[in-house]
Structure formats: structure tokens, C-alpha cells
Amino acid sequence: MIKPDAVAAGNTGAISKMIEEAGFRIVAMKKTKLSAELAGQFYEIHKERPFYGELCKYMSSGPIVPMILEKENAVEDFRKLIGATDPKKAAPGTIRALFAKSIDANAIHGSDSDANAEIEGNFFFSQFERL
Ligand code: UDP
Ligand code: MG
User: Fold this and answer.
1) CA-closest candidate to residue 59, choices 87, 37, 89
2) Which of 49, 55, 57, when mutated, tests ligand 1's pocket best, judged by the most ligand atoms within 8 Å of its CB?
3) Domains contained in the chain, number
4) What is the rounded CA–CA span in Å between residue 126 and residue 66?
5) Segment 53-109, tens digit of pLDDT
6) Which terminus of the chain faces fewer neighbouring Cβ atoms within 10 Å, N or C?
7) Residue 20: inside a domain, yes or no?
8) Is residue 22 assigned to a domain?
């Protein structure tokens, strides 16, 4: 998911290009906006963490671009492509190193397991939106 800061900065195209050039197939993609309540639902696993409130506010602050991506070893390879959560610690050339503004407004989300990729894909897309 391309996050509000990166969509607002006009980086949707550049980031999508990096994703495709890294060998991912875009199975589904759209532009949408989360309510604070839906952002809270998406990040439910973080609800005990101190930044949860701010995270929900930020994630509902503007349009986002969720995608379903397909590749061998997709979860691990995508985490490598996006880089560390904190852009100051993200490896050079990663999406967060190039586009993230801060540890919270960090340009992009990537699922952390196959099981969560399934859950998160279903959160945003119906079967009719997958090509
Ligand atoms: N986040 C934050 N402050 C922190 C850690 C995380 O605002 O100290 C936000 C950030 O947007 C991050 C998201 O919460 O991407 C989810 O955190 P997680 O630890 O799952 O990082 P990620 O998997 O996105 O790298
Ligand atoms: Mg995470």
C-alpha cells in the first residue's frame, strides 16, 4: 500500500515503476481513502503500541493506493525493496530511503507474512478486482 504522504507527493507512478521493475506483478490496484475507523481496523495488531492513534489519523489523512502483488518469495523480497520502517535506517535505493518523510509517514506498507498478505488483500479487494 502506497501511504498518504507518498500519494500526496505525486510518487505513485515512480513507486509503482520500482515495484514492477523489481519483478512484481500487479494483480490488483486502486486509489481509495480510509476512514479513521477503517485505518484502525487495518492496523488492529498495533493497537497497544503508543503510536497507534497517530498512525490511524495519518493513514486516514488522504488517499492511498493499495495493491495485491505476485512474485516468488514476494513477502520477503518486498520487505527488502521497501527498506526499514525508519527511512534513516533504510538501505540506499529502497523505496523508503528514496520517498519516506519520517518513521510514521514512511511512504509504503508491506505485508509481513503470507497469512497477513491474504488478510490485507481481502481487506481492500473483492475477487472481481483481481486480474
Ligand atoms: N510507526 C510509527 N512509529 C514507530 C513505528 C511504526 O509511526 O515507532 C508506523 C509506521 O508508519 C509503520 C507502521 O506504524 O510503517 C507499522 O509499524 P511496523 O512496526 O509494522 O513497521 P513496518 O512493518 O511498516 O515496517
Ligand atoms: Mg508491519
Assistant:
1) 37
2) 55
3) 1
4) 13
5) 999 999 999 999 999 999 999 999 999 999 999 999 999 999 999 999 999 999 999
6) C
7) yes
8) yes
Predicted confidence at residue 24, as pLDDT, reads: 98
* Ligand 1, atom 18, residue with closest C-alpha: 85
What's the pLDDT band for 41 if we cut at 50, 70, 90? Answer: very high
112 lines ligand 1 (CB under 6 A): yes
Residue 48 lies in a domain: no
CA distances from 70 to 24, 35, 63, 74, 100 (A): 6, 27, 23, 6, 23
Domain range for 112 is 4-33+65-125
Active site residues: 109
